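U., I forgot to send this yesterday:
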Amino acid sequence: MPSYIGAIDQGTTSTRFIVFDKSGRIVSVAQKEHQQIYPKPGWVEHDPEEIWRRTREVIAEAMQRRDLGPSDLAAIGITNQRETTVVWDRRTGKPVCNAIVWQDTRVSDAVAEFSREGGQDRFRQKTGLPLATYFSGLKIRWILDNVAGVREQAESGEVIFGNIDTYLVWNLTGGPQGGIYITDVSNASRTQLLDLKTLKWDQEILALFGIPVKMLPQIRSSSERYGVAQLPAIKDVPIAGVLGDQQAALFGQTCFAKGEAKNTYGTGCFLLMNTGDAPIQSKHGLVTTIGYKLGDKPAQYALEGSIAVTGALVQWLRDNLGLIQKSSEIEALARTVEDNGGVYFVPAFSGLYAPYWQANARGVITGLTRYANKGHIARAVLEATAFQTREVVEAMQLDSGIALTVLRTDGGMVENDLLMQFQSDVLNRPVVRPVVRETTALGAAYAAGLAVGFFQDTDELRTHWDVDHTWNPQMDDDAREKSFRLWKKAVTRSFDWVDDQPRS
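Result:
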């Protein structure tokens, strides 16, 4: 009987392979970054072939580190950056162009065009999503319209689309030699092409966007045997779980009950709340998405607040301004000052996501005086993450009617004690960090393990979740509300900065 379960965690900046034991603890891990490509302002791309290369490398490395063979793994789960769009030739496996990343804003004109008739929410009832540059559907349309010859190939079924999950499953299970062509419901719900209730591709939206249905993958549950791996290091290991990264973190945090929520602090921030087996339509700027679906059981839905730029702002401070050498140095720099000195940083680099959905917003730093220094800017960078999270928490409570009593956190930024304390202060409620921080990969491993009987049920998974640290609020009410009021004021200064785009 195999002792371990594997997870591929393909993220926005890097790819990891993590091997977990039965208690959800990490046994082996390998990680490699891939290139971020910025051809034009607002455009963000990845090379899919580099991602596939990195995936093969980290699998081999992690297995080799602990001298593991295929027989040691019960199954492999996959979790992935969502909405990032790949179109490739099914005969050769070659992408027709670079992947268009979720942060990319090149389809903003199309968003405005489709919003003119029926508004930004014209597809929300079916898909749970507003018209925005974020989702995959309009990215597919852009590729069909702008890469020579691809539309004809798509209509004949020669080229196919996938988010990163689909691309990896297809390659892992054989690629051009019989690769399995599927996506799971959680990733499908991020395309703006899925009907949330029927769990099928919506023919009306496909027709409006001009996307042939034959270029779309088969939709499957998040936890079932899809096929077996063909790579030597994991030969014949079942690929048995697929979840978009934020849904995987929800699953890894064992938020299986209605009203349970988690916030992942990564490149962006993503707050998800389990809403049970019925979708809740948001009236306060959130999106309705599928949380997960276990085999033949009903799909579980979630409300999600997506924040585009949080950890990416720390990277920007490092790479573009050179104020720090490593991302981890931001906490020490922010601690050189007692407060933000009146400085607020709204990181609307690619517009604002939840709860505003303002594609024309751009980043602003406000409240600058001669007193302000790099410590204040570092502090404002961290505080921006916490303020944006509070906005999403408030919207989620209004939509769901459920008051969050505690916020479960995960992701790279939860190592930052200053940020986590400020998050607790600005929310005025406890913030907890679990023992296992890699909840995204863990969620994918859990989904795969359930499908093959490695884990018995979700009750067993709950027993693995333990608190590592809890932060409690220490800020007085007046200071909390004053700082949040000034943040909201700063946000309004970022609105409508881009004024040469067509208006919806």
